[in-house]
Design goal:
Layout lengths: L13 H12 L5 H7 L4 H4 L3 E2 L7 E2 L5 H4 L8 H35 L11 H11 L8 H17 L13 H9 L7 H11 L8 H31 L5 E5 L9 E7 L2 H10 L3 H9 L5 E6 H11 L10 H6 L5 E4 L8 H5 L5 E4 L10 E2 L7 H15 L14 E5 L3 H7 L2 H4 L3 H9 L4 E5 L11 H12 L2 E6 H8 L7 H6 L2 H10 L4 E5 L4 H14 L11 E5 L5 H13 L2 E5 L8 H15 L2 E5 L2 H18 L19 H10 L15
Parallel strand pairs: 4-5, 4-6, 6-7, 7-8, 10-11, 10-13, 11-12, 13-14, 14-15
Antiparallel strand pairs: 1-2, 3-9
Helix pairs in contact: 5-7, 5-9, 5-10, 5-25, 6-7, 6-10, 9-10, 10-24, 10-25, 11-13, 11-16, 20-27
C-alpha cells in the first residue's frame, strides 16, 4: 500500500480508473474531483465540534481541550465527542430500521393478499423465523403464519417495553453481558428516539453513559432492523445459494438497453428482474433498435439481485457517476441509501435518465416513479419502458470499458452450513475444527463503503489479499464485496493462487472461494448468526466474544457503518475502521470504545488510517483470541489433528445413501 512518493491513484479499480481518466480529460466533475477540492474540517473530523444548540457551534481545540475545554453550556470534550458518535449511530440505525420496516410491511401486504406480484419463496425459512420469534406455525396456512410474523416484527419497531424479538437469537452469555450493562433494546424506534433525547443540550453529560446507550441503539439495528430485513428478504425472494455473475463497469452492452438498479431495497429490483425477461418487453426493446435488455446493479441493490439471480454488478458507491460516464446507461433506477445527489448533474452530459422511486429519496432533475408494492409489476414495466424509449437518444460519447470479472456470490448462513456437510449432516463443526487445528487462523468480516478520499477500493483489495495469504477466511458484504468482485477476487480459483496453505486446503475440499460474498450491508447480520451458530457448535468460545474474529471497514463513509461497527462491538467483535477517528479529539472516548467496551463485551471500536497497521492489529486480535481459547498456535502449513474434511463428492455419496424425508415446499433444493 505504499506509493513510493508518487501521487496516489484516485481509485484502485482498473476499469474505474479508465473511465475516470476519460472524464477528467473532459472536465467532468465526480466525487473524486470534489474530494480533492474539499478537505474535511479538522475540528469536526475529530469530533471536537458541537452544534446541537444555537449557543454554538462550540469548538473545543488546543492541547488542553480534553482537561479544560468546555462548551458554552459546560459540556466537556468527551461529552461532545460521545454525543457526535451516538447521533451517528442513531442515524445509521434509523436508516437500516426503515429498510427493515418496509420489508415487514411488504410481508404483511403479501400475507393479506394485497401485493399479488409477490409470493413466499422460502416457506421453510418463514417457519424457522416463526419458531425463533414465538409464532405458532405447525398445521397453519402459510399466509397466516406470514401475517403473524410480519405483525410481530412491526411491533419490534414501536415496542416501548420488553425487548426486540431477535435478541433471543444471540448466545446466552452474550445476552447476559447486554443485560448486565443495560443495552438490550426495547424497540428499534424507542432506542433511536432516546439516543437523540440523551444527546440534546442539557441532557446526558457522562460520556460513558452516552456511549453505552449508543450501543443499545446499535444492537437495535443489528439484532433488530437489519436482521429483520435480511430474513424477510430471504422469505420473500429466496435464501441465496451460490450463483455465478460478473462484476465491472464493463458489464454494459453497446447494442442493448442498459438499466441499472441502485440503492438498497430489493422489492422493486426483484420486479424489474422479472419484467426485463418478459417476451413482450424484449420485443418492445427490439422495436426501438436494441437487441435486448441488459440489467445491471450498483451498490447493495446489486448485491441483493446478484445473490439470488446472478445479475451483474457495476461496482460500489464510487462507481455510480462513472457508470453514467460510460455513456451506455439508459436509466439508473434508484431506491434508498447511498444515492449521490450529483447523479442528476452528471447525467445532463449524457442521455441517462435518473429515476427515483421512493418518497424518501427525491432529487431535482430526476424522473420520479413512485413504487407501490400493491402494483409492483405494473410500475416495474413503466420504468423499463421508460428506459427502452430512451435507447434511441444514446449519444456516441462515453468511455466504453469492456473487461469483466467472474464472481461467485450467494453464501447465506444456510448455505455455509449446508456446504460443510450436505443436506443431512449440515453444521458448523468443520469450520470450527479447521480453526481449532490452525488450518484457518481466524475469520474477518470485511465490510463497509469504498471512499474517494483514499485510492477507492484499494484498502479492501490490499487487506483481502493479505488476510487470505495468512489463512484468514474472509466474509464480505456491501461495497467491500463489490470491491473484491470488480478486482476478480470472488472465485474459487482465487484460493489456489493466493490463499495460505491451510485455507486453500479447506477451500478446495469444500469448493468455495476464500472470500465469501454474504450480500448487502444489512446482511452483515448473517455474520452475527453464523458466529452464534459457531458458538453453539462448541469447541471455540461459548459466546461471540472471544472468537478469533475481527470486523474491518477499511474505507467507511456512512453513519450506517458506524452503527454496524457498534453492534458488532457490543456483540463481542473487535472492529477496526480505516481512516481518521470521528472522535479522535477525545482520549477518554477513545479509551471507552477500546478498553472499556472490550472489558464489558469483548468487542471494541478502533480507527486506523494505515492499512498495514490495520492488518497487524487484526492478526494480534486473532492470535490473542486463539491463545485465550487455548487453541493450537497458528503456524503456516502446520496443522493439528482434526476430523476429516469431506469434499463435495464424499458428501454426495452420503446423501445418496440417506433416506429423503418430506419437507416444506417452496424451497431451493440447495437450501435444505
Amino acid at each position: 500500500m505504499k506509493n513510493n512518493g508518487h501521487k496516489p491513484a484516485k481509485t484502485a479499480n482498473k476499469e474505474a480508473a479508465i473511465v475516470l481518466e476519460w472524464g477528467d480529460s473532459r472536465g467532468y466533475e465526480t466525487c473524486f474531483t470534489r474530494a480533492e477540492k474539499m478537505k474535511p474540517c479538522p475540528i469536526g473530523e475529530s469530533g471536537a465540534c458541537c452544534k446541537v444548540c444555537h449557543m454554538g457551534p462550540c469548538r473545543l481545540v488546543g492541547t488542553k481541550a480534553e482537561e479544560e475545554g468546555r462548551g458554552i453550556c459546560g459540556a466537556t470534550l468527551p461529552v461532545i465527542a460521545a454525543r457526535n458518535l451516538a447521533r451517528m449511530v442513531a442515524a445509521g440505525t434509523a436508516c437500516h430500521g426503515d429498510h427493515g420496516r418496509d420489508m415487514a410491511f411488504t410481508l404483511l401486504a403479501v400475507a393479506e393478499g394485497e401485493a399479488k406480484d409477490f409470493k413466499i419463496k422460502d416457506v421453510k425459512k418463514l417457519y424457522r423465523v416463526a419458531e425463533i420469534i414465538g409464532v405458532a406455525a405447525e398445521g397453519r396456512p402459510v399466509l397466516d403464519v406470514a401475517k403473524d410474523v410480519a405483525l410481530k416484527f412491526i411491533e419490534d419497531f414501536g415496542r416501548q417495553r420488553g425487548e426486540v424479538s431477535y435478541v433471543r437469537r444471540a448466545p446466552k452469555k452474550t445476552q447476559g453481558r447486554w443485560k448486565k450493562w443495560d443495552i438490550v433494546p426495547r424497540g428499534i424506534d424507542r432506542e433511536i428516539a432516546e439516543t437523540l433525547d440523551r444527546t440534546t443540550m442539557g441532557m446526558d453529560a457522562d460520556a460513558d453513559s452516552i456511549l453505552n446507550h449508543a450501543l443499545k441503539a446499535a444492537v437495535a439495528n443489528g439484532w433488530g432492523g437489519s436482521m429483520i430485513s435480511t430474513d424477510i428478504t430471504d422469505v420473500l425472494f429466496g435464501t441465496p445459494s451460490p450463483v455465478k455473475a460478473e462484476a465491472s463497469l464493463g458489464i454494459f452492452k453497446d447494442d442493448e438497453v442498459n438499466i441499472v438498479i441502485h440503492g438498497h431495497e430489493p422489492n422493486l429490483a426483484e420486479m424489474i428482474v422479472d419484467v426485463v425477461y418478459e417476451p413482450e418487453m424484449i420485443e418492445y426493446a427490439k422495436s426501438k433498435g436494441a437487441k435486448g435488455i441488459n440489467l445491471g446493479g450498483m451498490c447493495c441493490t446489486a448485491n441483493e439481485v446478484m445473490m439470488r439471480h446472478g445479475i451483474p454488478t457495476a461496482g460500489g458507491f464510487t462507481n455510480q457517476e462513472l457508470g453514467i460516464m460510460t455513456g451506455l446507461i439508459e436509466a439508473m433506477v434508484v431506491d434508498v441509501q447511498c444515492i449521490m445527489p450529483a447523479l442528476t448533474e452528471v447525467s445532463k452530459k449524457f442521455h441517462t435518465k435518473i429515476v427515483t422511486t421512493s418518497s424518501k429519496v427525491r432529487m431535482p432533475g430526476a424522473t420520479h416513479v413512485q413504487f407501490d408494492e400493491h402494483n409492483a409489476k405494473d410500475i416495474a414495466r413503466e420504468i423499463v419502458k421508460l428506459a427502452i424509449d430512451n435507447y434511441p437518444n444514446r449519444k456516441a460519447e462515453g468511455s466504453h470499458v469492456t473487461e469483466t470479472f467472474p464472481v461467485i456470490a450467494g453464501f447465506s448462513h444456510e448455505y455455509i452450513e449446508y456446504m460443510q456437510g450436505g443436506r443431512w449432516r449440515a453444521s458448523f463443526r468443520p469450520l470450527n475444527d479447521a480453526i481449532m487445528a490452525g488450518r484457518i487462523r481466524g475469520v474477518v468480516g470485511l465490510a463497509g463503503c469504498d471512499n474517494p478520499r483514499v485510492p477507492s477500493t484499494g484498502m479492501h483489495k490490499f487487506l483481502a489479499i493479505e488476510l487470505i495469504k495468512n489463512d484468514v477466511l474472509v466474509v464480505s458484504t456491501g461495497c467491500s464485496s463489490a470491491s473484491c468482485g470488480t478486482a476478480g477476487f470472488l472465485t474459487p480459483e482465487m484460493a489456489m493462487e493466493n490463499a495460505g496453505p491451510g485455507l486453500r486446503e479447506v477451500c478446495e475440499a469444500i469448493g468455495i472461494p476464500p472470500i465469501l460474498h454474504l450480500g448487502s450491508c444489512v446482511d452483515n447480520t448473517r455474520i452475527l448468526t453464523i458466529a452464534t451458530a459457531m458458538a453453539a457448535e462448541g469447541g471455540l468460545s461459548d459466546e461471540i466474544g472471544g472468537m478469533p474474529a475481527v470486523g474491518i471497514a477499511p474505507e467507511f463513509i456512512t453513519e450506517k457503518a458506524i452503527s454496524i461497527g457498534c453492534y458488532f462491538a457490543a456483540s463481542g467483535v473487535p472492529v477496526i475502521f480505516g481512516g481518521e477517528s470521528p472522535v479522535g479529539a477525545s482520549r477518554e472516548v477513545t479509551r471507552i470504545m477500546t478498553e472499556v467496551w472490550f472489558e464489558r463485551f469483548k468487542g471494541a471500536l478502533h480507527f486506523e488510517p494505515d492499512p498495514e497497521k490495520i492488518l497487524a492489529m487484526t492478526f494480534d486480535y486473532i492470535d490473542k483470541a486463539r491463545e485465550a481459547l487455548k487453541l493450537r498456535k497458528y503456524e503456516p502449513g502446520k496443522f493439528g489433528a482434526e476430523r476429516v474434511l469431506m469434499d463435495m463428492a464424499a458428501r454426495r455419496e452420503i446423501e445418496k445413501a440417506a433416506v429423503p424425508h418430506a419437507g416444506v415446499g417452496g424451497i431451493n433444493e440447495s437450501e435444505n
